[in-house]
Design a protein that fits this description.
40% of the residues lie in helices and 22% in strands. It has one domain: CBS-domain. Helix 5 links the parallel strand 5 and strand 6. Strands 1-7-6-5 form a four-stranded mixed β-sheet. By secondary structure, the chain is α/β, with parallel strands linked by helices. It is built from seven helices and seven strands; from the N terminus they run αββαββααβαββαα. Pfam families: CBS (PF00571). This is CBS domain-containing protein. InterPro entries: CBS_dom, CBS_dom_sf, Diverse_CBS-Domain. Keywords: CBS domain.
Length: 139
């Protein structure tokens, strides 16, 4: 049984919901990632911010990323997976919510992220094709 911990990219880092989007962009550039899990004051997941969110929901609308916080853009219920979850549970979570990145949690702490690139390295061609079809399908 392959687990989430075995396919994740380790060392993911939170960004506080109170941090501004320009700081989030700087951290993304430094870590060479396109998304960051957002934490509340108790270091609990409250969302994910992506580079696309910053561009489309802030910059393109004429807002100043040094004045908009990560928490301002977090919407909906944050999705995550336990580190011990089987890869089928990972796929179910990502496919059913049509998400491309999934935080991995162990003992209430962020331990990694699973992205499409991680899946591509660990799934069969059929599994990967099914994932792409379900995540990118229009509803």
């Amino acid at each position: 049984m392959t687990t989430a911990a075995e396919i994740m990219h380790p060392g993911a880092q939170w960004i506080p919901a109170t941090e501004t989007l320009d700081r989030a962009a700087e951290l993304m550039a430094r870590l060479n990632v396109g998304a960051l899990p957002v934490s509340d004051e108790s270091e609990r997941l409250c969302g994910i911010i992506t580079d696309r969110d910053i561009v489309v929901s802030c910059v393109a609308k004429g807002h100043d990323p040094s004045k908009v916080t990560c928490g301002d853009l977090c919407q909906g219920t944050p999705r995550w997976i336990d580190a011990d979850a089987d890869v089928s549970a990972v796929l179910d979570e990502m496919e059913s919510h049509q998400i491309k990145r999934l935080p991995v949690i162990k003992d209430k702490r962020l331990v990694g992220m699973i992205s499409e690139a991680d899946l591509a390295q660990h799934l069969s061609e059929d599994q990967l094709a099914g994932f792409v079809e379900k995540v990118y399908a229009r509803h």
